[in-house]
Amino acid sequence: PPDQTTVDMTGGSVHNLRPYDSSIINMSGGGIQTLDAFNISTANISGGDVRSIFTWDHATTNLYDGGSVFSLGAGVSGTINMMGGNTEYLRAGDFSIVNLFGGTVNIYLNAWDSAKVNIYGYGFDYDPSAGNWNGGQLTGLWLDDTPFIIDLAGSGTYSNINLVPEPISLILFTCGALLLRSS
User: Which residues, at least 6 apart from 154, have a Cβ–Cβ distance to it below 8 Å?
Assistant: First the structure.
């Protein structure tokens, strides 16, 4: 859909969907084989199944509870916000940004080049020798206390990850640092 079109998809199926020019896709049901979001478009996935999403050129994909994407990827300045839902494969490269607040990455997360993956939660633990994809395994809790386990693919993926602690820990750390500094 071109030129600021909004599509509300509640059912049915689409083989190839390519939103661009600030278009918005709101998917709450149905199925899409391939969704390529680009040129400042937005894809909101809260239900249904998508085989493949690739987000690039300043576009944004938001994945919510109820949404399922087999392969979710971003590159060339694309952004993914994962608040819930699930994906088998999550990939990020070429100046893309991935923000993980919840949901499930079932097989692996892979990040390379200048991609940034921000993971919001607490109780993080990274084991470089765990997992099945030669990049280690990251465990922790989302901000809603749901535990997560994410296998990382490739030895360079962890260097692209920013662990963002829950606000209370950050506030306590800051207060402690200020108290130490003042004494």
Answer: 110, 112, 133, 134, 135
